[in-house]
Amino acid sequence: MQKIQIINGPNLNLLGRREPGIYGARSFEDYLKTLRQRYPNVQLDYYQSNHEGALIDKLHEVGFEANGIVLNAGAYTHTSVALHDAIRAIEAPVIEVHISNVHQREEFRHKSLISAACKGVICGFGLDSYRLAIEGLIGD
Ligand code: DQA
Predict the structure, then answer these.
(1) Do β-strands 94-98 and 68-72 pair in parallel, antiparallel, or remain unpaired?
(2) 60, 98, 103, 110: which one is catalytic?
(3) What is the tally of structural domains in the chain?
(4) Is the pLDDT of residue 65 over 80?
(5) Is 121's C-beta closer than 6 angstroms to any atom of ligand 1?
(6) Among 49, 76, 77, 83, which is best to mutate for testing ligand 1, by the most ligand atoms less than 8 A from CB?
(7) pLDDT at residue 139 in the model
(8) d(C-alpha 121, C-alpha 52), whole Å
């Protein structure tokens, strides 16, 4: 069975309640149920942290055994050289995802420090960004 790790960064624990006009009204836990039903033959593991170092620890932990990683690094996307280095340090392909289209938003969201270390980038499709990333990984 293929194993895909989903990792959500800071403030994404509040999905469903946080700025619903941008991020939607659905919690990630609820969306995850739908994803798991859609991919019964894929082991979809989920981790969320608001802490940069904890996200790095998780990448190290799963990065040599998972078939792929779907990473929404939240605001750390725009600031973290350490996450860039962690993605480069592991073997599993990482897809960067964003729920919103960051390029339509504030200028500080236009720059990603992790994109160059990732296999691909998906943004702007709402929660469906995660499904599209999974499609990209399992199609490999
Ligand atoms: C986000 C976009 C980031 O700019 C923001 O800091 C987030 C969420 C998204 O999924 O659209 O926390 O990654």
Answers:
(1) parallel
(2) 98
(3) 1
(4) yes
(5) no
(6) 77
(7) 82
(8) 20
Per the residue annotation, which of 23, 31, 76, 130 is the catalytic one? Answer: 23
**Residue 109, ligand 1, Cβ within 6 A:** yes
Nearest to 125 by CA among 31, 60, 49: 31
1-29 residue pLDDT tens = 999 999 999 999 999 999 999 999 999 99
Region 116-136: mean pLDDT is 98
Q: Would you call 123 exposed, middle or buried from its count of C-beta atoms within 10 A (0-12, 13-18, 19+)?
A: buried
Tell me which residue range forms the domain holding 99.
Answer: 2-138
Distances 50 to 11, 75, 82, 138 between C-alpha atoms, Å: 6, 10, 15, 27
Ligand 1 pocket check for 129: Cβ under 6 Å? no
**Ligand 1 binding pocket includes 58 (Cβ within 6 Å):** no
User: What is the domain-level CATH number for residue 72?
Assistant: 3.40.50.9100
Tokens of 32: 């995850």
Can you give the pTM of this predicted structure? 0.97
